[in-house]
Design goal:
This protein has 104 residues and is mostly helical. 61% of the residues lie in helices and 0% in strands.
Length: 104
């Protein structure tokens, strides 16, 4: 995993390392959510927003406000599911690579 924005990809790809990190984190959370046996009311919201994050990442230049909005919706939808907390944290960290939290 990338630990800072200063690291470069070693694969020879031209893809932004932040995008790679986001795609990896989103993919992991999507797999874990799909495998989670419990149904909860906002599961579809989480799945839709993860798909949106993935689509933004594939585009290569995601909009930071949209990334944050999707993250907030995902966290609200699955935040109480402790089994997904680690992967959700990884998505949050990947989103923050595009810029820290908005100024207050």
């Amino acid at each position: 995993m990338l630990r800072s924005m200063g690291q470069e990809l070693l694969t020879g790809s031209d893809e932004d390392p932040r995008v790679t990190e986001l795609r990896t984190a989103v993919s992991r959370l999507r797999r874990e959510l799909a495998a989670h046996p419990a149904e909860f009311p906002d599961r579809a919201v989480a799945e839709d927003e993860l798909a949106a994050l993935d689509a933004m990442a594939v585009g290569g230049n995601p909009e930071i406000p949209r990334l944050r909005r999707s993250l907030l919706l995902i966290a609200a939808a699955i935040g109480s599911v402790s089994a997904l907390a680690k992967s959700l944290g990884e998505v949050r960290n990947a989103v923050e690579l595009f810029g820290g939290p908005p100024p207050r």
